[in-house]
Amino acid sequence: MQWHPIFAYLLRPVIEAHFDVQTDLPVGDLPRQADIVLVRRTSEGPLPFQGLWRHLTHWNVIEFKGPTATPRLHDPDLLIEVGLGIERRLNEEQERLGQPRR
Length: 102
Known about the structure:
The chain is of the alpha+beta class. Helix content is 34%, strand content 21%. A 3-stranded antiparallel beta sheet has the order 1-2-3, with helices on both faces. It is globular and about 40 Å long. The termini are far apart.
């Protein structure tokens, strides 16, 4: 079962007033998709959240492990690599649109 779309569906109502939530994003130059959730801030000013959500920054990459998936030692390194690929892709897009990089 694909947990990422379900996680994003449940996350949207909680943070959608301040963040855009995306799933299945292209990563790098290869035609592969990232099975992560990307959360991009869309509002300015202080956030009204408590707990975990108060730590969200302008761009956030979230990997959600389902109840049957066991995290492995190399997962954080792979997640960082995916995040860097998404950051590069988004920076290229912003430069193409003439927007400042974040």
